[in-house]
Amino acid sequence: MTQLLSKDSWQYREINRRAPSLPTLSNALIALADAGHPVMAGTADLQYSNGLSGFAQRYPERFVQFGISEQNMVSAAAGMATTGVIPYVATFASFLALLCCEQIRMDVAYCKQPVRLIGHHTGISLGFYGTSHHATEDIAIMRSIANLAVVSTADGPALDAALRATVDYPLPIYFRIHRGHDPVVYEDGVAFELGKAIVHGIGKDITIIAAGYPVHGAKRAMEELNAAGHSVGLIDMHSIKPLDEDAIIEASARSKIILTVEEHNILGGLGGAVAEVLAEKGRGARLVRHGIRDEYSLIAPPTHLYRHYRLDGDGIRAVALENIA
Amino acid sequence: MSMRQNPGGHLSVARSHELLSGEQLAFLQERARFIRLETLRLISIAKVGHYTSVFSCAEIFAALYYDVMRLRKGEPAFADRDRFLMGKGHAAVGLFPILADLGFFDPAWLESYTRLGSPLGDHPDMTKVPGVDFSSGSIGHALSNGVGMLLGARFQQRDFNAFVLLGDGEMQEGQVWEAALSAASHNLSNLIAIVDRNGYQLDGKVDDVIAIEPLDEKWRAFGWEVHTVDGHDLEALTTLLRAAKADRARTKPCCIIARTVKGKGIDYMETEPGWHLGYLGAEDEAKARETILNTVISQ
Fold first, then answer.
1. Side-chain-facing half-sphere of B232: CA atoms under 13 Å
2. Which of A17, B179, B231, B242 has the fewest beta carbons closer than 10 A?
3. In this predicted structure, what is the pLDDT of residue B272?
């Protein structure tokens, strides 16, 4: 039967055209497979949400559909890795980090298997789908697991660079990524080095240290505040573990304030990691942690949530100004 | 080139004339006795351990490692070896002497069992013990690990089997059934799960703790081929395992429910739930050793 629908209508499998950076993961894995790397990918009934449907079409023999069984997927990925392949398994960050925490610790990290855990739709990006789908604890959990690196990229180009640069990394990595709608920070691409932050500048008044989606807003806030005569810097701390301690220590010597910005609980996440460094090795800067303040986030469309929690450019600028004053 | 350690890996259960030879049976019975004796010896070092969990699966260990599995002595990392995974990792004390006996590590390591810095603890650790194909300890992961190994092997067009030994208490873990569904859905016919159905877990009888029967119907409903066997009858058990491995026409994964006795071989341990974990003083250990030496377990 012919269905006459307006051009404004859409269905889920057309999501790619609505989320510009969604194919990044799939395209990077296809490129790695094309180049001869033994990569495989798996998901738990979310191949359209994370864009792995593209990889599945291109390389069906390398793709495993696990269905809604995330724990089985993580343990199986560890088994796959023992045979010499590099498995990339992806699901919502909330499920991956919380539901599969023990499988990640025992089968992946303790056993030193080079599994790539892709936690997507992280932070509050799932908006009105609610607390069950929000991930504001995943950094705290993942960075406390030995042998496991934690990476939070700012946009599609950064994710692409990170996936390619780490393909041969011998230990597991948790990639905390967004939902494909993230605005582009690095239009001309960016180099990625695990454990090495991208320093956009050190400000005398404030240096913002951000990771993931809020980097875009933080960069805009920095530019606007500098245009208004303040001295503001920004560090994109994409590697939350291993952490670029030198960049933090240098900023603490040259800035009055370090402002951490994350779509995560301020306990245990990026702010917590920076606080640990400053407490032991800091050179004077005062720390302000900005993020979700140990509460369950509200429901709303994502853009409304970022505005509410002051994690967009306007919000980050306002938080910075309050602390400069 | 045959990579089997022992001859005769292609028997069918339907062809009873291809049962084990008397010599093969005697060899496996002797190996099962060796496993029980070594378990006594190692637990005497730790001064606490899971005797009964090993005694229920000593024949399963013997059949797999000394007959059924494709292995190469002294080559624990041989790429196309059959894999063995233990959901019931607390029976590792019975596995370590086998791995040492196969030349995977120096048998002198056994003397360090559970002592500070030893690679050998209560649970098997792949990062420390050559020949351990995957670590375990948290019950319920192993079948998933095996599923993953075979998915990786399939993509690389490598042909090995994965044998996964599961406890019957482990049937209460949800992840087991996630793995069971996925194995059947992905047609992993070279996956063979063996349930050590000894009937007991830490808190008592399995079916008093959380009932799991009818177990064969459950596995069948999850898409597996299911066989039930006396897990102490080495002739029947080995023949069945050989046939399950050799059956290339099967498209489903295979589950073998091995009916066993927890603590098999030491009468006061048998079906006594308190002996899930325990220790035998020197005098009792000597008597247990004597009992094991003078017993031929045939069913």
1. 19
2. A17
3. 86
| Tokens, residue B39 | 């378990």
Letter for the amino acid at A143? R
Q: Which two tokens stand for residue B103?
A: 């030349």
Q: Which CATH architecture has domain A198-324?
A: 3-Layer(aba) Sandwich (3.40)
Q: In chain A, where are the structural domains located?
A: 14-176, 198-324
**Neighboring chain B residues of A112 at a CB cutoff of 8 Å:** 127
- Residue of B81, B84, B147 for testing the chain A interface, max A β-carbons within 10 Å: B147
Banded model confidence at residue B15, pLDDT cuts 50, 70, 90: very low
Tell me what pLDDT residue B299 has.
81
- Domains belonging to chain B, first-starting first, are 21-72+79-293 (3.40.50.970)
Interchain contact, B181 vs A77, CB within 8 Å: no
Residue type, B64: L
Q: Is B146 left (phi over 0), alpha (psi -120 to 50) or beta?
A: alpha
Inform me whether the C-beta atom of residue B148 falls under 8 Å from chain A C-beta atoms: yes
pLDDT tens-digit profile of A251-307?
Answer: 999 999 999 999 999 999 999 999 999 999 999 999 999 999 999 999 999 999 999
CA distance B266 to B295: 10
CB A120 within 8 A of CB A15: no
Q: Which amino acid is at A41?
A: A
| CATH hierarchy code of domain A14-176 | 3.40.50.970
Q: Per the CB < 8 Å rule, is A111 touching B181?
A: no
Whether A81 has its CB under 8 Å from any CB of chain B: the answer is yes
Of the partner residues A64, A75, A111, the one whose CB lies closest to the CB of residue B175: A75
**Cβ of B141 and A77 within 8 Å?**
no
Chain B contact for A110 (CB, 8 A cutoff): yes
Residues on chain B touching A39 (C-beta within 8 angstroms): none
Per-residue pLDDT at B36: 98
Express each pLDDT in A26-77 by its tens digit: 999 999 999 999 999 999 999 999 999 999 999 999 999 999 999 999 999 9
- Concatenating the DSSP letter of every residue in A57-100 gives HH-GGGEEE--S-HHHHHHHHHHHHHTT-EEEEEEEHHIIIIIT
**CB proximity under 8 Å: A 33-72 to B:** 38, 40, 61-62, 64, 66-67, 69, 71-72
